Fold this protein.
Amino acid sequence: MFRKLPNRFEVCRKNAMASRAADDVEPKFEKVLEGLQGAEGPVFDKNGNFFMVAPDTGEIYNVNLQEKRAILLCKPKIEDAGVPAGCQCDKEGNIYVADMRLGILKVTQSGYFTQLAKIDNEGRIMQGCNDCIFDYEGNLWITAPAGEIAPSQYRRSMEEPFGSLYCLTNEEVIRIDTGIFFPNGIAVKHNASGKAEMLIVAETPTKLLWAYDIDGPGRVKNKRKWATLPGELEGGADGMDFDDAGSLLVAHWGSGVIEVFPPEGGTPTRRIKCPFQHPSNLHFKPNSNIVYVTEHDFHGLWKFDWLTCGQKQFCET
């Protein structure tokens, strides 16, 4: 259902002023729901409808945030049951799902799903995917930490670096890098004119965030270490999202915190303490400073107020 959203500038300014006044106070988390096994993939469409996934049961949900109720949208299966993980929405309200067994899915809001590719542009069998992000031109950048899609045997690149990165552009899947230990969360940074200029990719087992300069649709260059997550605990970087000040919020799975990195990367400027140990992903509500977080302790969805609004998503542009 369409509903008019408040003016972005007015909301961000008001909420940022209130939040900065209490900058030294830890954000207050509110639980929305729990019990969605492997909770991941939080995403809004441009009309404020919210979706997420339960990878452990292979299910994709439409969540009524007001009633705090998850409604099953679909449970994809193509030769094998799906393991949906990351989600993004296009301008028409379709949900693009990175699936560890099925690759890339396109799901309508009526629950109809299609598998977008079985091979890449060079004829290689697609790998299972984990997270994705649109740039403002509609190119979908995707992490692929699994082995070949179903019906091949299910494998993950946690101990052997066979993970890859893809870009879906003009209905073609291009592999842009490979040889990565479990590539996971992914984010695109745009410049002031709205051009995609940098790709950030989480390599979970090494606790590294890699940066690539975007050289056009399906083209990257100048790969480099952008940041390292602190600590020696099991886990590492999972899902992530930019705010509109250029800071990157990163779910640090296993640490109980969300790391906040400055626009230039390096060392976190802040660590947001969560009421759970295993944050898995996060996403800003459109035109607001409200962050929705999924996690693997209660397999739930939570929210908190951040200092500023999130970076606009493709569906909002």
Remarks:
- Helices lie at 8-21.
- The two ends are 19 Å apart (CA to CA).
- Residues 24 and 270 are 10 Å apart (CA to CA).
- The first helix runs from residue 8 to 21.
